[in-house]
Design brief:
Layout lengths: L1 H16 L4 H8 L3 H7 L1 H18 L4
Length: 62
């Protein structure tokens, strides 16, 4: 069980957050890019929110 959690949750999450190309992660896990994005959508959502925050702060008009 620990191996499953490590390989299928922690490693992909770490790679996605460190901006490793989706196609490389999917290949490593034996998934398609579409499967990868569906499975780990919550990570992409948090990255989107962070991007929005950075853009909002950078483009803030005072």
């Amino acid at each position: 069980m620990v191996y499953f959690i490590f390989v299928h949750i922690l490693i992909p999450s770490f790679l996605i957050k460190n901006k490793i190309d989706d196609s490389l992660i999917a290949e490593r896990l034996g998934h398609t890019v579409t499967e990868l994005r569906k499975t780990y959508a919550h990570i992409y959502d948090s990255m989107r929110q962070n991007m929005k925050k950075i853009l909002d702060e950078t483009c803030k008009i005072e």
